[in-house]
Amino acid sequence: MVRPVMECRSLKLIIANKNYSSWSMRPWLAAKHAGIGFEEQIIWLRQPQTSTNIKTISAAGKVPILIHGDILVHESIAILEYLAELAPALWPQDKEARAHARSVGAEMHAGFMPLRKNCPMNIKRRPKAIALDTETLASVERVVDLFVDCRARFGGGGDFLFGAAFNNADAMFAPVVNRLHAYDIKVPASVRHYMDAVMATPMWREWEEAALKETEVIADIDAVA
């Protein structure tokens, strides 16, 4: 379903490299899915002026950053909440499902450090397995259990975590979908189905297409064998 673009001409989303920036990916996908129009600005990571360029905009010194008129929002999870004020369907309508979606989104924001550290997001990476330590495997196990539980309790037979529609919880876990895929981590068929559904969305494909065209390289991420 193609959504009409919501006119938000003063809305700007400042992100980093599409190939590597998991935090940038989340609100970008959500805004695209919701049909919220925005201007995009990229600040490339690991460049001499990267930190200065970001801190010129936000004292927090991190991307993504959302600017809407005089309002500035940083941190992916806060940006997703702000986007949901513009497009409420970015959270489930049901109160219990909405509460759980917020809970798992916050868990993603604060947790899964071994998986995030040892399997960095890399859209260009061809799927290839690596050796995973005990802590990373525990992160994977929790992700798998979370996906299965959300879809069983709230999915209603739909393709996404909370049913037929992609929402903010899916946006929070989209970079994990890339990690599971790029590092060829074995998951149950139901989880693979969910991953394929996320990767087939128009906004994922648009992000991926742009990431594949980037020439900027972060060598230590590309070197993960």
Question: Quick summary of this structure?
Answer:
The protein is an alpha+beta fold and 225 residues long.
Break the fold down into its secondary structure elements and pairings.
Layout: E1 11-15, H1 22-34, E2 39-42, H2 50-57, E3 65-68, E4 71-74, H3 76-86, H4 95-110, H5 113-118, H6 134-154, H7 168-182, H8 189-199, H9 202-213, H10 219-222
Parallel strand pairs: 1-2
Antiparallel strand pairs: 1-3, 3-4
What would you note in describing this structure?
The protein is α+β, with helices and mostly antiparallel strands and 225 residues long. The protein has 2 domains: 11-88, Glutaredoxin, CATH 3.40.30.10; 92-207, Glutathione S-transferase Yfyf (Class Pi), Chain A, domain 2. The protein contains 10 helices and 4 strands; from the N terminus they run βαβαββαααααααα. It has helices at residues 22-34, 50-57, 76-86, 95-110, 113-118, 134-154, 168-182, 189-199, 202-213, 219-222; strands at 11-15, 39-42, 65-68, 71-74. Strands 2-1-3-4 form a 4-stranded mixed sheet, covered by helices on one side. Helix 1 crosses helix 7 and helix 4 crosses helix 7. The longest helix has 21 residues, at 134-154. The relative contact order is 0.16. The mean pLDDT is 96.
